[in-house]
Amino acid sequence: MAFELKEEGFRLKDVLKQVDIPEATYHYHINQMNNEDPNQEWKELISALFHKHEGRYGISKRPTLDFVLAPLDQAIKIIKLKTKLIAKSQ
Known about the structure:
90 residues, mainly alpha, 2 domains
């Protein structure tokens, strides 16, 4: 709101008093708006993945499958550990 009022020609001092923000905060946000976002590519990638997977960021949690997946997960960890040990011994 402060940015729009300032652009309409109101004095900055009056605008800041009306919207009740410090002048330093106003200038900080003006500078942030002028800077390029360094994470823009990542944000676009995450947004594209989010929409590709129908609004989900990760896998769904299904507590009914935990008793099936837990032993499988443990077996995968053991296989990975054995593979590392075999590779080190050769």
